[in-house]
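Quarterly update, task 2.4: adenosine-5'-diphosphate-bound model.
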Amino acid sequence: MFQSIRWRIAVPYILLLLLTLLGLATYVASTVRQSYINQMQTEITADARLIAVRAAAALQDGAPPDELDRIARQSAAILNRRVTIIDAEGNVLAESHEAAAGMENHMERPEFLQAWTDGEGISLRDSETLGSEMLYAAVAVYPPGEESAGTPLGYVRVALPLQQIQQFINRMLRIFLGLTLAAALISTLIAAWIASRTTRSLRRLTEAVRQVPAGELFDEPVSRNSDEFGQLHLAFNQMAVRLRKQINDLDTERSKLAAVLAQMTDGVIIAGEEGEVQLINPAAENMFSITQESALGRTLAEALRSHQFVDLWQQCKQSGETVSTSIEIPTRRIFLQAVATPLGESLPGSILLLFQDLTRLRHLETVRRDFISNISHELRTPLASLKALTETLQESAFDDPPAARRFLQRMETEVDALSLMVSELLELSRIESGRVPLQLKAVDPKQVIQVAVDRMKLQAQRAGLEMVVDCPSGTPSILADQPRLEQVMVNLLHNAIKFTPAGGRISIHLESSGSEALFTVQDTGPGITEDDLPRIFERFYKADRARTSGGTGLGLAIARHLVEAHGGRIWAESQVGRGSTFRFSIPLAS
Ligand code: ADP
C-alpha cells in the first residue's frame, strides 16, 4: 500500500504534522509549567516575607512554640500553603502540617542554605517529608526594625505542592494528545483525498499506457489541467500518436517484406552469428523440405542436413565477402546456385544465404545439348548411307542395271526417311508456334479411336499383336480438331506396335471423367525406365541410346503439342518389364 505515490506523499506530511503537534505540546507544557513556577515563586516568596514579619517578634521573644505554631498554622490556612519556621541553627520550631518536635534539622535544605547566604532562597524538588514535588521559598527572619540587616533570628519557609500544576499540565497534554490524534486522522483523510485526486490522472494515464503494448489504442482524452500531470498526459498522447504511426509504418514495411519473401521463387535464409537460422522463406522451405517451425533457431547443419551449405556459410563468415557456389542435392534431384552475403552493419554477424533453383535451367541445357546431338545423329545416318550408296553406284553398280535399281530404291527409302523427318520437324515447329489453327468442333471420341485403330490394324496384325478396344457407349462429345486428334492416337498406337514384342496386347480405352474425356493406350511391351519417363515427350528423345529402334523421336513431341493445343494433358505411366500406359485428356464439348 505504501508503495503507491499517494501514500508516499501523504505519510511524510502526516508524520510532520504529528511531530509538530507533539513538539508544540511539549513546548507549551514546559512553558506553562515554567511560567506557573515563576509566578508561584514570586507569590510564595512574598508570602514567606509576610509570615517572616509576623514571626520576627515571636522569635525575638524567645520563640514560644505555641505562638510560632499558631502563626504557622494560621498563615498556612489563609494562604493554603505549607509553612515551616526554623531557628538560625536549622531546628524546626513550627510546622503547619506536621508536628515540629522530632523533625530533623533543616539547615541543609537548599532553600535554607540560600536564604542563610542571600537572605532568600528558592528550591524546586521532591519533598523528603511528603515525597511529592514541591516549590519552596525560604526567607530570613530579622529582628523587628532591622529588616534585612542584622543576624537572622530564624527562617520562614513556604512550600507549595506542584501536584496541581502537574495535574493541569497532564490534562493539557491529554487534550493536546486528543487534538493531535484528531488532527492526524483528519489530515490523513485530507492527505489521502488530495493525493488520490492528484494521482487519479496519473493512474488513468498508467492504465491507458499499460494497454498500448496489448495493441489497444491510446485514446485517453487529454487532461484539462495544465499542471505537470496534464503536460505528461499531453506528451504521452503525442508520443502514442507518433508511436502508432511508426508501428503502422513498420507493419506495412514488414508486410511488404513478408509478401516479397513469400512470393520469391529464390530461397532465402538468414543465419545468425552461430549459424542459427533466423529467417527462412517458403521457397527455401520447399527446396529443403523443411518447415519454418522446425528450422528456426536450429543451426544450418541441423536444418539443411548438408555440409556444403555450412562450408559456404563458414567461408563467407571468415572472408567477410560474398561467396557463391553450385550445389546439387542428389536425393531430391535439385541443382542450386547458392550465394552467401554478409549483412554487415544492418545485421552484424548475420549472413544472407540466397538459393536459386537452376534445376529447370540445367534441364533445358541438357535438352538443348541432347537435341543437337540427336538431330545430328538422325541426319548423319541417312546421309552416310546415301553417300555410301552414291559412291558404290558411281564406282561399279552403274554397269549392273539390276543392282543399280536396288541401290536407287534404297536411296529413295533414305531420302523418304529424311523428308519424313524434315516434314515432321516442320509440322512440330508450326504446331509449337501456333501456326496450325485447330478447327475445333464437337467430335465423337469413339470416332477418333475407330479411325486410328482402322489405320493401324494391319500393322498390328503383321506384328502379331492383339488390339482390344473398350469404348463404353454414351461417352459425351469432345471439342476437338478430329484429324489432329487422330494423329495423336496414331502416334501412340504406332509406338505401342513398334515397341511391343509379338504376342503382346494393345488395349485402347475411353472414359469420361469430370469435364474431360480420358483416352488410354496400354501395351504389354518392355516399359520405360524411371529416368527416361519424364523425357520421352522431348523432341528427338529416345530411350534407346543406340537409336536402333527406327523412328525420328518426334512422335510423342508432336502428340504432346497437339494435346496441349486442345487444352488437354498427356502423360505416361510405366514400369520396366510390365508395359507402358499412355493417357491423354481432352475437354468435353459442353
Ligand atoms: P520414336 O518412337 O520415333 O522413337 P517417340 O517420340 O514416339 O519417338 O518416342 C520417344 C521414345 O519413347 C521412344 O524412342 C521410346 O524409347 C519411348 N517410347 C515411346 N512409346 C513407347 C512404348 N509404347 N513402349 C516403350 N517405349 C516407348
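Highlight for this quarter: The chain has four domains: 5-169, 264-357, 362-432, 441-587.
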